[in-house]
Amino acid sequence: MSADFFAAAQFTEIKFSATSFTKINEGEYELIGDLTLHGVTKSVKLAADYGGLMKDPWGNTKMALALEGKINRKDWGLNWNSALETGGVLVSEEVRLNIELQFLQQ
């Protein structure tokens, strides 16, 4: 939340807008979209695993989707770090995204 990281007071939302959804194999897809974070918008590619349509115990139709990908936080201007006494730095540049989504048919 602090200015060293997300500067949440200044950048109040993180936004993702899908631009394409492509089938790779049965149940496997690629989702590409624009991620806006820290006031910067960049294209990202996510692997998507489609879990299929299902009915819950109340008869509602739902769909499950799992997304995975990686981004470099410095591409969005998130540059803070701290050197360690043992060498290296405290915070990795690579951020792994693991997203589980469930949609309800209206």
Set down the secondary structure blueprint:
Blueprint: E1 15-25, E2 28-37, E3 40-55, E4 61-72, E5 94-104
Antiparallel strand pairs: 1-2, 2-3, 3-4, 4-5
Descriptive overview:
The protein is mainly β. 0% of the residues lie in helices and 57% in strands. The chain has no helices and five strands. It has a five-stranded antiparallel β-sheet with strand order 1-2-3-4-5, with no helix packed on it. It is elongated and about 55 Å long.
CATH architecture: Beta Barrel
Q: What is the H/E string? A: EEEEE
The biggest beta sheet reads:
5 strands, antiparallel
Please identify the structural class as seen in this structure: mainly beta
Write down the overall geometry: elongated
* Total strands: 5
Average pLDDT, to the nearest integer? 91
How are the strands of the largest sheet arranged?
1-2-3-4-5
Number of helices: 0
Distance between the termini: 34 Å
Low-pLDDT runs of 5+ residues are none
Mind telling me the C-alpha Rg?
18 Å
Organism: Flavobacterium xanthum
Domain Lipid/polyisoprenoid-binding YceI-like: 1-104
Protein name: YceI-like domain-containing protein
Overview features:
106 residues, mainly beta, Lipocalin, 5-stranded antiparallel sheet, 5 strands, 57% strand, elongated, YceI-like domain-containing protein, Lipid/polyisoprenoid-bd_YceI, TTHA0802/YceI-like_sf
Q: What's this entry about, in short?
A:
With 106 residues, this protein is mainly β.
